[in-house]
Amino acid sequence: MKNVTDSFLSLGHWPSAGSFGFNTDILATNPINLSVVLGVLIFFGKGVLNDLLDNRKQRILSTIRNSEELRKGAIEQLERARTRLRKVEIEADEYRMNGYSEIEREKENLINATCDTLEGLENYKNETLHFEQQRAINQVRQRVFQQALQGALGTLNSCLNSELHFRTIRANIGILGAMEEIRD
């Protein structure tokens, strides 16, 4: 805390700059700048971020509901496939003498097709969720960055006026002149 106070007091100790000068102590000024930027981001970006997150939450919940419906449909298909399998097994007992291997192949194909369908639907659901989450994260990042940039530009534009500009230029010229005199 003492370094921060000293950094503000050192502004008036530059004889060539008059009552205005630059603080070149990076360790003292960065926490102040960061706290100002974070405060502005939190104050202005909180509502928008909440709205974005709520919208994303609703979309993700909708996607989850859709995926659950697809899952229920796949379970119904599986139940139908199991019913069909039971019928095939009954027929297999009747036709055991005539073509047992053919019925076994049909049963395996049916099970494999159903398992493949379920795996595909599960993979699709997982990919959709992952994609939607990544898209939501990227949108939030982009919005926060845009708002931070707009806030920073607005702050800079509101703080800089022509008088401050001329004072800064005069102070820098005075510093350069003092440095030139020291070299000579």
TrEMBL record:
The chain crosses the membrane at residues 32-49. One of its GO terms (cellular component) is proton-transporting ATP synthase complex. GO terms for biological process: proton motive force-driven ATP synthesis. GO terms for molecular function: proton transmembrane transporter activity. Pfam families: ATP-synt_B (PF00430). CDD domains: ATP-synt_Fo_b. The keyword Glycoprotein does not apply. The keyword Ion transport applies. Residues 64-98 form a coiled coil. Keywords: ATP synthesis, CF(0), Chloroplast, Coiled coil, Hydrogen ion transport, Ion transport, Membrane, Plastid, Thylakoid, Transmembrane, Transmembrane helix, Transport. It is found in: Membrane. Belongs to the ATPase B chain family. HAMAP family: ATP_synth_b_bprime. This is ATP synthase CF0 subunit I. It comes from Eremospatha macrocarpa. The gene is atpF.
